[in-house]
Amino acid sequence: MKILCFGSLNIDYTYKVEHFVQKGETISSQSLQVFSGGKGLNQSIALAKAGAEVYHAGAVGTDGGFLLRQLEEAGVNTEHVAVLDEIRTGNAIIQNDKDGDNCIILYGGANQAITREQADQVLKSFDKGDYLLLQNEINELPYIMEKAHRKGMNVILNPSPMDEKMKELPLDDVDYFLLNEVEAGQILNTGETDGEILAERLLERFPGASIVLTLGSKGSIYADREQKIHQKAYRVRAVDTTAAGDTFTGYFIAEAAAGQTPEKAMDLAARASAIAVTRAGAAPSIPWRKEVEVWRPEM
Ligand code: RIB
């Protein structure tokens, strides 16, 4: 069983700021650091560090070589990442404030240059029973999703960052949704914010799917037709929350795909993402499985 993550690769320019810049304001940053990132890359690295067999597909420009090296160092197969001559690698401008929170501007670049030919070529290497993990930072998502579903692959969707295009996807083809309460509200077209109610409504709308709903400091909920599980969030001193959600997604899917129970998968994912929050940057903040297994909450 293989896991294919078809998703973004970004160069993250992370600016440490006292507060997020406001409309009309100019502020100085305290530092600039350049990290590997992109929701796709982060989730591939989390999957691999958790111990899964992971293949990343996507595209970078010729300036994206270090992103491929970072994936490979974590054990991710990169043979399906196209290196394009005439377009630059996607990037993110990230403000990281004194509380560790962030806000992000994306430039799609090569992430938005995926072709159907590339998708066809990549999917030839995967079979019924393999997993496909998608986020919303590349183009051609409906095509990739439909084709993988027709092949019998398990489709996992993290609809992030959420926008109107997500609602046009063949969402009935999704086997696992990993999303937060805002994304859940938007998919369901409701102003409801209560996690319990959102999880129930998601299951009513997608009865065949497994739902993982993350609720920030309130923890997370796993729900499928047979069970509902609550997972607490481990409290830590936040340095940078970037990629915490990606770490959770990668660890949860690695465990679920390996046949672990949802309880165990949720707990390991919550621990891994708690560690990620205590470290700067996106992909570099993602811990290895052996660190997660010995980690004890400090608060
Ligand atoms: O989820 C965090 C990621 O979102 C960052 O690494 C950034 O590149 C954006 O894609």
Which descriptors would you attach to this protein?
UDP-N-acetylmuramoyl-L-alanine:D-glutamate ligase, 13 strands, binds alpha-D-ribofuranose, 32% helix, 299 residues, 4-stranded mixed β-sheet
CATH architecture: 3-Layer(aba) Sandwich
Main sheet properties: 9 strands, mixed
CATH topology (fold) name: UDP-N-acetylmuramoyl-L-alanine:D-glutamate ligase
Q: How much helix, percentage-wise, in residues?
A: 25-40%
> How is the largest sheet built, in terms of strand order?
5-4-1-8-9-10-11-12-13
Determine the CATH superfamily. Ribokinase
The SSE string, one letter per element, is EEEHEHEEEHEHEEHHEEEHHH
What characteristic shape results from the CA principal axes?
Answer: globular
What's the overall average pLDDT, rounded?
Answer: 97
Q: Which CATH class is shown? A: Alpha Beta
- The value of Rg in angstroms is 18 Å
Beta-strand content: 15-25%
How many structural domains can be distinguished in the coordinates?
Answer: 1
The secondary structure category is alpha/beta
Low-confidence stretches: none
Number of strands: 13
Folded structure, characterized:
The chain is an alpha/beta fold and 299 residues long. It has a single domain (3-294), classed as 3-Layer(aba) Sandwich (UDP-N-acetylmuramoyl-L-alanine:D-glutamate ligase). The protein has helices at 39-50, 65-74, 116-123, 141-151, 181-188, 195-205, 244-257, 262-277, 289-294, and strands at 3-6, 10-16, 31-37, 54-61, 77-84, 90-96, 102-107, 131-134, 154-157, 176-180, 210-214, 220-223, 228-231. The strands form two sheets. It has a nine-stranded mixed sheet with strand order 5-4-1-8-9-10-11-12-13, with helices on both faces. Strands 3-2-6-7 form a four-stranded mixed sheet. α1 packs parallel to α2 (65-74). The N and C termini lie far apart (37 Å). The mean pLDDT is 97. Bound molecules: alpha-D-ribofuranose (RIB). Alpha-D-ribofuranose is lined by residues 8, 10, 12, 37-39, 42, 92, 104, 106, 137, 242-243, 245-246, 282.
